[in-house]
């Protein structure tokens, strides 16, 4: 815990510093949600087909899912998602004509979750 999944548009392959983002994200999760740094695990997934709106613009997306052990207050979860949304653009190089859509959400892990 936490288990973090980052889905990103394939068009961001060369422009999204995924490792840098994860290394900045982990301390943010620790500070905001009280997680342990050594327990933070992030995986990124390249999404081949993303469509935003009517699909005519050169839009790209990054969506971050953070799964935590249950018990965080709603204010903590909201603060974390807002901080993550603000962090992502620092790790995506701008490109002319591209609109970057960023979203994040925090979920509770199922009580059956175990790590070894």
Describe the protein's architecture and organization.
- This protein is of the alpha/beta class.
- It has one domain (3-108): Macrophage Migration Inhibitory Factor, CATH 3.30.429.10.
- It is 26% helix and 31% strand.
- The chain contains two helices and four strands, in the order βαββαβ.
- The mean pLDDT is 93.
- It comes from Streptomyces ficellus.
- This is Isomerase.
- Keywords: Isomerase.
Summarize the helices and strands and which ones pair or pack.
Blueprint (H helix, E strand, L loop, with lengths): L2 E7 L8 H16 L7 E7 L10 E11 L5 H14 L10 E11 L8
Parallel strand pairs: 1-2, 3-4
Antiparallel strand pairs: 1-3
Helix pairs in contact: 1-2
List keywords for this structure.
116 residues; Macrophage Migration Inhibitory Factor; 4-stranded mixed beta sheet; 2 helices; isomerase; Tautomerase/MIF_sf; 5-carboxymethyl-2-hydroxymuconate delta-isomerase activity
Give the biggest beta sheet. 4 strands, mixed
Straight-line N-to-C gap: 11 Å
Assign the CATH architecture: 2-Layer Sandwich
What string, H for helix and E for strand, traces the elements in order? EHEEHE
Classify the secondary structure makeup into a structural class: alpha/beta
Strand fraction: 25-35%
Name the CATH superfamily assignment: Macrophage Migration Inhibitory Factor
- What overall form do the CA principal axes indicate? elongated
Q: What is the spatial order of strands in the main beta sheet?
A: 2-1-3-4
Uncertain runs: none
The tally of beta strands, per DSSP, is: 4
Q: Bin the helical content.
A: 25-40%
Mean pLDDT: 93
Oligomer: single chain
Instruction: Tell me the number of structural domains.
Output: 1
Topology-level CATH name: Macrophage Migration Inhibitory Factor
* CA-atom Rg in angstroms: 15 Å
Q: In DSSP terms, counting alpha (H) and pi (I) runs of 4 or more, how many helices?
A: 2
Level-1 CATH class name: Alpha Beta
């Amino acid at each position: 815990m936490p288990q973090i999944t980052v889905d990103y548009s394939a068009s961001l392959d060369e422009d999204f510093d995924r490792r840098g983002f994860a290394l900045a994200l982990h301390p943010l999760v620790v500070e905001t949600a009280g997680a342990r740094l050594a327990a933070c695990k992030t995986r990124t997934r390249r999404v081949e087909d993303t469509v935003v709106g009517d699909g005519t613009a050169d839009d790209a997306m990054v969506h971050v899912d953070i799964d935590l052990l249950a018990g965080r207050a709603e204010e903590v979860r909201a603060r974390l998602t807002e901080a993550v949304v603000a962090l992502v653009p620092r790790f995506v190089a701008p490109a002319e004509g591209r609109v970057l859509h960023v979203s994040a959400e925090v979920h509770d892990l199922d009580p059956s979750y175990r790590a070894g």
